[in-house]
Amino acid sequence: MAIEGPDNLIVVILDSLNRHMLGTYGGTEFATPSIDAFAGSALRFTGHHTGSLPCMPARHDILVGALDFPWRPWGSIEVWEDAITRSLRQCGVTTMLVSDHPHLFETGGENYHTDFTAWTYERGHENDPWRTTPDPTWMGTPALPVERSKYHRPYDDSRTWFRDEADYPGPRTMQAAADWIRSSAPAHGRFFLMVDEFDPHEPFDTPLPYAGMYNDVDGEAELAIWPPYLVDAVASGRLSLDQARHLRNNYGSKLTMIDHWFGRLLKSVDEAGLTGSTGIVLVTDHGHYLGEHDLFGKPAAPIYSELGRIPLLIRWPGQAPRDIDALTTSVDIHATIADLFGAAVGHPTHGTSLLPLIEGTATSIRELALFGYWGRHVGVTDGRHRYLRGCGDENLPLSMWSNRWSTMPVDPFPDLRLPRPDSRAVLRTMPGTDVPVICQPFEAGDTLPYWALGPTPSLSHLFDTAVDPGELEDRCGEQIEAELLDGLAGALRSISAPDDLFVRLGIG
């Protein structure tokens, strides 16, 4: 039985949305009036964290409901599981996807959209192979001159086909979603709309007036729109302070632009007469470093709060705006969708419904939340402390569990492939199922999947965000570390995490 609630649900994912830069969460650098106004009528979650990182693992958490990172770095929906949209369709719920997210339509993410009733893909964002040549009539308007990256990217050609602000992928995605809300949503008894909007993810490319909001733009100076992925970015001399600020401001320009179009999406809900029957969720997959801790992008570095502590705003009919301080994480969104629509899920999941928090019948739903990248630190938080467990001198043993052997394509390196399983692979049973799965071990000297490349995550880190919100004081060695280590071990056991993960982290 579904819990009584709104008939419909809209989930908007804005990729790489930095919580600390939103006005509603205390940000003052960049304008986010639409999100702030939305927050004024919404439930503001202050203890929400990402689970699996980065992009596709986070969407696996939301759409499938099972943490991805303990078993693999990046990949499609596996044969033992289904997206929540399959369950919703069996309940008679119309499901719609509107997106410009390229990873949903390439190897390693290509089957997340297939169980939606319908879907729309707005082309041209980042590395989407949309055009093979630039627009021969392009004269530079509205696309401003930009610094060329070392590698030619599909976006270099795509951006020349944008005629005005509304032609950029983010605005087109929001407009397409708004059009569907006005034209089609009222015809359905119950619907679930997911707007997977890739902005404010790089490239940080915007037309005027946004490009000139936070940087001086004269129409001739080149904009830097491709942020590097760097540790010790300024300290090493690879970025100057001016370059770092320029990139950060260009992120701000894109944030303000997509905020404006998010406002248009909200307006369409009101115009369609759906406000009283529709819940709206605004969330992200993770943040994006823009100089915090001298980091840029999502490099091989600890997951500080700027990356892992993320916004969650929910407007819910019948619920007055208020703060909810409970600890929550990405897999809980999946559980909430299933709970709202009374959908049965046939595979093991790791989330807990947010509905008791939303309805005020509970003040907490979990004591701990796991987070991390495959092959890097494994994190656990109790909402106050954030513990990142390192692996010591050697980042082994490592294994990847998957029957859909794929990983994220890296456009500048088309020959980069995930090594195929070899004679060392064995069949294991995925926890909670009777489905055999290929388990491939990696050894020293092996080529590792993309997201495990980089320096070994040797050291552990522990931060008390109540007294150290900037996470500058490492508290490893204090008594709380032993408590969190026990909690981490218990949380991993509760999801039947792979044995070699415990060995790699040196925990029992």
What does the main sheet amount to? Answer: 8 strands, mixed
Radius of gyration equals 22 Å
> Which strand-content bin applies to the residues?
15-25%
Q: Mind telling me the CATH superfamily name of the largest domain?
A: Alkaline Phosphatase, subunit A
Please count the helical segments.
11
Number of strands: 18
Secondary-structure element string: EHEHHEEHHEEHEEEHEEHHEEEEEEEHH
General description of the model:
- With 508 residues, the chain is α/β, with parallel strands linked by helices.
- Helices cover 23% and strands 17% of the residues.
- Helix 2 (55-64) packs parallel to helix 8 (331-341) and helix 5 runs parallel beside helix 6 (241-271).
- The longest helix is centred in the middle third of the chain and has 31 residues, at 241-271.
- It is globular and about 60 Å long.
Short structural summary:
With 508 residues, the chain is an alpha/beta fold. It has helices at 33-39, 55-64, 84-90, 154-158, 169-183, 241-271, 305-308, 331-341, 355-359, 479-494, 499-505, and strands spanning 8-14, 43-49, 94-99, 118-121, 191-197, 230-231, 278-283, 289-290, 295-297, 312-315, 322-329, 369-372, 378-381, 385-389, 398-401, 426-429, 436-442, 461-464. Helix 1 (33-39) packs across helix 6, helix 2 (55-64) packs parallel to helix 8 and helix 5 (169-183) runs parallel beside helix 6 (241-271).
